[in-house]
UniProtKB/TrEMBL annotation:
The gene is Chst9_1. This is Carbohydrate sulfotransferase. It is an enzyme of class 2 (transferase). One of its GO terms (biological process) is carbohydrate biosynthetic process. InterPro entries: Carb_sulfotrans_8-10 (IPR018011), Sulfotransferase (IPR005331). It comes from Dicaeum eximium. One of its GO terms (cellular component) is Golgi membrane.
Length: 165
């Protein structure tokens, strides 16, 4: 699959037989994150032009799934988990545990290759940020966001997400 190793080649340029063969030759890992956490991170990084989280969320909702940024598009529209059989799905917030398992499965020494990850602190921080920022949204925005990310919420176990409520 020499063509695949060039930057310009997209998987969609191959026929179905070649796509299946190419995907079968790789270990496929999908990293997923609560959609609300992705929105918060994007907002805090200044990727939106809005002065408030509520107005940023409205920009996201107005952009729709087809015109939105990769930073906030639903994961199912980006990664196609229903079409591609991923070998591993790694949840943000459990990186140390899951990456260690992934490295051991690959036959690599997990302890020496993993950076210091403070998952519990990250989870607590995002829980607090989610509570604060979610409370800024109107009931209609909350409902629209849940609908916007409905397929992500159905495909991945984001059971503690505010959007699942």
């Amino acid at each position: 699959y020499r063509r695949l190793h060039t930057k310009e080649t997209r998987l969609s340029e191959f026929n179905q037989t070649d796509i299946k063969a190419v995907l079968g030759s790789y270990t496929k890992v999908l990293f997923v994150r609560d959609p609300l956490h992705r929105l918060i991170a994007t907002f805090l990084q200044g990727m939106g032009t809005s002065p408030s989280f509520s107005s940023f969320v409205q920009e996201v909702l107005d952009s729709g799934t087809h015109n939105g940024s990769v930073a906030w598009k639903p994961l199912v529209s980006l990664c196609r988990p229903c079409l591609i059989q991923y070998d591993y799905v790694v949840m943000f917030g459990f990186l140390r545990q899951e990456l260690g398992h992934l490295l051991r499965r690959a036959g690599l020494p997990a302890g020496s290759l993993l950076p210091e990850l403070t998952d519990s602190q990250v989870q607590w921080t995002y829980r607090w940020l989610s509570e604060q920022m979610f409370s800024e949204l109107s009931a209609q925005q909350k409902k629209q966001l849940s609908h916007f990310y409905r397929w992500d919420l159905a495909a991945f176990p984001f059971s503690s997400s505010f959007l699942s409520d």
